[in-house]
Design goal:
The structure is a single chain. It is globular and about 55 Å long. A hairpin with a 3-residue loop joins strand 2 and strand 3. The chain has two domains: about 110 residues, Phosphorylase Kinase, domain 1, CATH 3.30.200.20; about 180 residues, Transferase(Phosphotransferase), domain 1. The strands form three sheets. A four-stranded antiparallel beta sheet has the order 1-3-2-8. It has a two-stranded antiparallel ribbon with strand order 4-7. Strands 5-6 form a two-stranded antiparallel sheet. By secondary structure, it is of the alpha+beta class. The two termini are about 15 Å apart. The longest helix has 20 residues. The chain has eleven helices and eight strands. Helix 6 packs antiparallel against helix 7.
Length: about 300
C-alpha cells in the first residue's frame, strides 16, 4: 500500500470472555473513535475475525515515558513540565467528553517522532452518560491508584488527577511517591506515608500536594482543569500554543528510518508474533457475536486508499 507502519493491538476473544473484559474492550474502541485530541493516539481501524479483535492505531516511534525515565532516571523540571502540559490537555479532553482514563502511568504515554506525547491504551477507561455519574470498579495500576478507588463509594475524573500527580512526582524524582508493590496488599494506609520532595521547586511541590489531597472533591482539578492550568507551576504558559504544538519539545527522537525501533525495549521488539496468529478451537466461533459494530475505518485511511488508487 503506502509502506506506512501502524501499531496493532490484538485481543483474544476467549481470554476477554474468561476475564469478563468484553465491555472494557468495546469502551476502548468507542472512546478512540469518539475522541479528537492531538495528545491522544489516533485509531485507524478496528476489525475482527472469529477468534480475535484487532485495533490498529498510529505508530509512535519515540517510545514510552517509562523507557526514557529508565534511561535518564529522572527529568529536569522543564522537561517534566513540558510533558505535564500536554498530559493536562489530554486528560482535560477526555473529561470534557465525560470520559475517565483510569490508567495513567509512564508506560501509557508515548512520544511521536517530533517529541510530543500521546496517551494510549484505553482498556480501563470509562465513558459516563452524564457528568454526575460515578464509577465503582477497582481497577488501574496500584502505584498510581487514587485512594477513593479502594473505598468503593464511587469516584469520578478526580482519580486521573491523582494519577497525574504520581506521574509528575515520578518524572521529577525518578521514584514513585507511595511504596505500593503488590495489588493484593493495597490499603488506605499506604497513602499516609510522608513524601520526600527532594530538591523539587516550591511550585512543583505545591502542585503535587494539591493533587494528592485525600478528599477528591477538594483535589486540584476536581471542579475544573483550569485550576491546574492556572497553578503557579504553569506560570506564563500559553495553553493555545501547547494545544497547537507550537512549543519546542525538550527531546526529539533521533530516528534513522520509519522502521527504527531504538526507543522500544528489545523484550517487546524481539517477541514472536506467532501467538497473535494462532486459532482457537471451532467451538469458540460464536464469540464473534459479542462484538457487533466493532468494525471501524478512520476517514483518513479511506482518503489515503482513494489517493493511492487514483480515484476521485
Amino acid at each position: 500500500m503506502n509502506n506506512k507502519l501502524y501499531a496493532m493491538k490484538v485481543l483474544d476473544k476467549k481470554i476477554l470472555k474468561s476475564k469478563k473484559q468484553q465491555i472494557h474492550t468495546k469502551t476502548e474502541r468507542d472512546l478512540m473513535v469518539k475522541i479528537n485530541c492531538p495528545f491522544i493516539v489516533d485509531i485507524k481501524s478496528a476489525f475482527q475475525d472469529e477468534y480475535k479483535l484487532y485495533i490498529v492505531s498510529e505508530f509512535l516511534q519515540g517510545g514510552d515515558l517509562f523507557f526514557h525515565l529508565h534511561e535518564k532516571k529522572k527529568f529536569s523540571e522543564d522537561k517534566a513540565k513540558f510533558y505535564s502540559m500536554e498530559l493536562v490537555l489530554a486528560l482535560d479532553c477526555l473529561h470534557k467528553n465525560n470520559m475517565i482514563y483510569r490508567d495513567l502511568k509512564p508506560e501509557n504515554v508515548l512520544l511521536d517522532s517530533d517529541g510530543h506525547i500521546k496517551l494510549t491504551d484505553f482498556g480501563l477507561s470509562k465513558i459516563f452518560e452524564t457528568e454526575d455519574d460515578k464509577a465503582f470498579t477497582v481497577c488501574g495500576t496500584p502505584q498510581y491508584l487514587a485512594p477513593e478507588v479502594l473505598l468503593r463509594k464511587g469516584y469520578n475524573k478526580s482519580v486521573d488527577w491523582w494519577s497525574f500527580g504520581c506521574l509528575l512526582y515520578e518524572m521529577l524524582t525518578g521514584k514513585l511517591p507511595f511504596n505500593i508493590k503488590k495489588a493484593k496488599n493495597l490499603s488506605i494506609n499506604f497513602y499516609k506515608q510522608e513524601l520526600n520532595f527532594y530538591n523539587m521547586s516550591e511550585e512543583a511541590k505545591d502542585l503535587i500536594k494539591k493533587l494528592f489531597i485525600f478528599d477528591p472533591s477538594l483535589r486540584l482539578g476536581s471542579n475544573n482543569s483550569d485550576d491546574i492550568k492556572n497553578h503557579k507551576f504553569f506560570n506564563n504558559v500559553n495553553w493555545d500554543d501547547v494545544w497547537n504544538k507550537k512549543l519546542q519539545p525538550p527531546f526529539i527522537p533521533k530516528l534513522k528510518s520509519d522502521e527504527d525501533l531504538k526507543y522500544f525495549d528489545s523484550s517487546f521488539t524481539d517477541e514472536s508474533i506467532g501467538s497473535l496468529l494462532s486459532k482457537n478451537s471451532l467451538k469458540e466461533r460464536q464469540l464473534s457475536n459479542d462484538y457487533n459494530g466493532f468494525t471501524y475505518i478512520n476517514p483518513s485511511i479511506g482518503k489515503e486508499l482513494t489517493e493511492l488508487s487514483g480515484d476521485e
